[in-house]
Structure formats: structure tokens, C-alpha cells
Amino acid sequence: MLIGLISDTHGMVRPQVHEALAGVELILHAGDVGDDAILDELETIAAVLAVYGNTDAPGRPRLKESLDLVYGGVSIHVSHGHEVGSPTPARLVERYPADVIVYGHTHRQLVERVGAQLVVNPGAAGARRFKLESSVALLRIEDGRADVELVPLAVLVRPVVRPA
Questions:
Q1: Taking the complete model, does pTM exceed 0.85, yes or no?
Q2: Which domain holds residue 92?
Q3: For residue 112, is it within any domain?
Q4: Which pLDDT score, from 0 to 100, does residue 21 have?
Q5: 43 with 26: CB under 8 angstroms?
């Protein structure tokens, strides 16, 4: 299964997001979405599940506080990360036992294994902030194992070609 990971769109979907996430079966949004039009646009690519970020207005039925999912025998936790204060892989694995933990909030791309757990921040996909490049990530689940690839959006000028 191929899952697109995105966070911190802050009301903006760059055209490169469509290229980067082409072919995914599902998109998980780790918060700071912006309005529901962002989710509508992402749904033109694949089904979307999303969580609240610290800048999202409460009470929106399409946003959850967190997500706990299982695909291909791999458990996945998605939250924005702000609920642990300043999110770090150590703080996140301390709180969440999932095989894969997906978060946002910091706008910094991160892929780190902590023991058997994989912690992923796909980076911010919205407007460039903090001198950080915009990015998303691809989570591949195969044979009960999860691997992730960060995809910088600034360098995409043609569709991403993925091995079969």
C-alpha cells in the first residue's frame, strides 16, 4: 500500500502536491489544514483522513483529534504533535505505541527510527516558512514493514516516477 503523508498546508495546496502524491491509495494529513477546500482538493488525488492542528478551528467534522489506523499489519498513529509540547521522536514514542507515528507542527522534515518505531514528519506542504523547503512524504507498507521517502516539492517539475 502507498500512503501520502502531508502536513501544515495552512490553506494552500501547491500544484506539485498532485505530482508528488499521484498514485497513492490514501492521504493522511497531520494538521494545520486550513479550510475544507484543502481537503476537497486533496480528495481529487485519493481519500483523505486528517487531524486538527493548533491553527485549525475546532468543531470541524472532517478533522479528528488523532487517528489510529492499521494497514497491512502496520499500526499508524497520526496527530499534529503540538499535544506533546515541542514534538520530538523521543516524546512521541513515549506517548504513542504505534509502529509508525506521523506528525507535523514543526515544519521540519524528519524520518527517524526509534527502536522498532518509525517517526515521520513530512514537513510543511504549504507556503514556505522558517527558510524550510516544502515537502510531503510517501509511506509504503509491504509485507508488514513500513518505509518512507520524503519528497521535496520545490524540485518537482515533472511527475514522480515510482518503481513498481
A1: yes
A2: 2-152
A3: yes
A4: 97
A5: no
